[in-house]
Design a protein that fits this description.
This protein has about 500 residues and is α+β, with helices and mostly antiparallel strands. It contains 14 helices and nine strands. It has a five-stranded antiparallel sheet with strand order 3-2-1-4-5, with no helix packed on it. A two-stranded parallel ribbon has the order 6-9. A two-stranded antiparallel ribbon has the order 7-8. Strand 7 and strand 8 form a beta hairpin. GO terms for molecular function: RNA binding.
Length: about 500
């Protein structure tokens, strides 16, 4: 088969035509299992009941008709004795809910007539090309195809297999705009391929109906006839989804898809025990405005000729104020030392110069009166300082209320036995094992050559290693006493040895 000449030579040797030879190449080799026979323990119950999630979100129907439709759901709880079914088939037209189902079909057709064009436009916007499981449109769409609101989980449908995919599964046409998806993948096809083939008629059960704009295959099914559940081993953990450009929060995406969160290391912090916040974020801006106002007033008093004939409310910016470039980072010298310098630009429009000037004139008047009385006048707080304190108090009160609400929530959850955090969100450090990548650790830096041998850390490690080796040699130490007692005993022995050396040194000196 590597070259046309070799292929023609093999065809002549086998005495076959080219078509017969190709058919032989694609024959299934190996053991072919017997035909799968599905046995029924009880009759297959098929009912015509309106979906429980009818009507769709945003669609209003007649309230009395909706109550009449939902009365049919109560009859699903009626128990049926299998012996009565085996004895004979009963025909009871009064309790078949056909009238309720006809009312549902009437409302469903009205919804289709109003939303068919919109759904087709959204299909072209979301899907560039058609592939199995997505909405049929254009030439593939036919009048009378059922939309997603027609189906519900647990519904039994008869259909035809249209596509088989190695990594996704089988797709069944049940008469709707979306083909049903039966998840099958990888090596499970080795035996299933003998029982499920394209074009065969099957009976399926709808397992789930999902959002078509989030999930790739809105209708998930399983085969009822032929039943191949015992041949499926490699199951999908989660149904495949779409990742849009606007999906920036992955945790929110997983919650939307019903998937568990990615485990992360438990920070082991307790927000209810943290100190309350009292630094309002707007206080920094207020302080900047306050400093700008006082600077202009100082210049107003120091240089009256500069502002002669002008009102303080008529002051304008010398240059066009650019809010994006209002902060400049430079450097400046301070006693022959270069220090970083930050320049904050403030527009005059943001300042309340009239109120600041009136406040300063009021304090100047009080200062003059105190000076005449021979007293010293002291300004406790200015108007902007009081405003900053009010913002900080507001922020503190908000933080206090949030902590109180958090404590109440924790108490209620503990009383009801509910988890304090989202299950599976945080895991202990032992879950991740050792040598996990940490971008803040210098060990994983590209230019890291290891810890220096003369560093304090490596020195401590060497001392600990030598100490452990010396302890391990004395096996009875671990059985007679604890680790702390062994260390204390060793320190005492070392102290005694030093005392003996000191005594021997004194005796030798006395003799000499």
């Amino acid at each position: 088969m590597l070259s046309p000449s070799y292929r023609s030579q093999k065809i002549k040797e086998m005495g076959l035509t080219e078509d017969e030879w190709y058919m032989k190449q694609f024959e299934i080799k190996g053991e072919i299992p017997d035909r799968l026979e599905t046995e029924w323990a009880s009759p297959l119950v098929i009912r015509q009941v309106a979906p429980r999630d009818w009507p769709p979100r945003g669609w209003e129907v007649d309230r009395e008709e909706l109550e009449f439709i939902r009365e049919g759901h109560k009859l699903q709880g009626v128990r049926v004795n299998l012996e009565d079914l085996e004895n004979g088939v009963g025909v009871d037209e009064e309790n078949m809910c056909l009238e309720r189902y006809k009312v549902f079909l009437k409302q469903y057709e009205e919804w289709v007539e109003a939303n068919k064009d919109r759904l087709e436009e959204e299909s072209y916007e979301e899907d560039q090309n058609y592939y199995p499981g997505r909405r049929k449109r254009g030439k593939d769409y036919k009048e009378g195809m059922y939309e997603l609101p027609f189906y519900y989980p647990g519904q039994i449908c008869e259909g035809k297999v249209t596509t088989l995919h190695l990594h996704q599964g089988a797709f069944v046409d049940v008469g709707g705009v979306h083909d049903g998806w039966v998840p099958i993948k990888r090596n499970d096809w080795f035996w299933i391929r003998h029982h499920i083939k394209v074009g065969m008629h099957v009976i399926v059960e709808i397992l789930a109906k999902r959002d078509p704009y989030r999930f790739r295959f809105p209708l998930e099914m399983r085969f009822v006839y032929p039943n191949i559940d015992h041949l499926i081993f490699n199951r999908f953990e989660f149904p495949p989804v779409f990742h849009r450009d606007e999906d920036t929060n992955l945790d929110e995406l997983r919650r939307d898809c019903g998937r568990p969160p990615v485990p992360r290391r438990d920070p082991e912090d307790k927000p209810e025990e943290e100190p309350l916040l009292s630094n309002h974020p707007y206080v920094d801006k207020l302080w900047q405005i306050h400093v700008a106002e006082q600077t202009i007033l100082d210049d107003w008093e120091a240089n009256p000729e500069k502002y002669k004939g002008k009102k303080i409310s008529e002051l304008t910016d010398n240059e066009d104020f650019d809010e994006e470039n209002s902060i400049e980072y430079t450097e400046a010298y301070h006693k022959k030392t270069v220090l970083p310098k930050v320049i904050l630009k403030t527009s005059v429009k943001e300042l309340d110069l009239e109120a600041a000037l009136a406040e300063r004139e009021f304090h100047n008047k009080l200062r003059m009166e105190a000076k005449e009385r021979g007293e010293k006048y002291k300004i406790t707080k200015l108007r902007r300082n009081i405003e900053m304190d009010e913002y900080d108090l507001l922020h503190w009160r908000r933080s206090f209320e949030e902590r109180e609400a958090l404590i109440r929530d924790i108490s209620c959850r503990r009383a009801l036995g509910l988890p304090l955090e989202e299950p599976g969100r945080y895991k202990p450090a032992s879950f991740f094992g050792k040598d996990q990548y940490d971008p803040e650790n210098p060990l994983y830096r590209y230019d890291y050559w290891g810890e220096p041998k003369n560093s304090e850390k490596s020195k401590q490690e060497r001392i600990t290693e030598i100490h452990n080796k010396s302890i391990v040699g004395k096996g009875n130490v671990w059985y007679e006493m604890s680790y702390e007692d062994a260390i204390a005993q060793r320190m005492q022995m070392e102290a005694r040895a030093k005392e003996r050396e000191a005594r021997s040194g004194r005796r030798s000196r006395q003799r000499s």
